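User: My collaborator sent over this chain with a note saying "see what the structure looks like." That's all I know about it. Can you take a look?
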Amino acid sequence: MSIEVLSAAWAELKRYINVVDRIEAAETFINVMVDNDITPDDIRDEFKGDTDIKKALVSYLGEEDDVEIEEDEDYEDFEDNDE
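Assistant: Without extra context I'll predict from the sequence alone. Here is the result:
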């Protein structure tokens, strides 16, 4: 399955996921994509506008240095909750 189809599916499905559950859902979605031979670089390129996927990808990779995240209000709130 192409990453473009997965991106479109995620965009439609995430509307039905509670906001508090989206990061966990995004993490699971990333795991499924990686298990099906989609690289983290391809995920980052395709989902560059999706904050939930970007946060989950940071978690998947284990290092923020590997993934560039645009500084936005949502991400700053996410960082504050981790401290």
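A starting point for your reply to your collaborator: The chain has one domain: 3-82.
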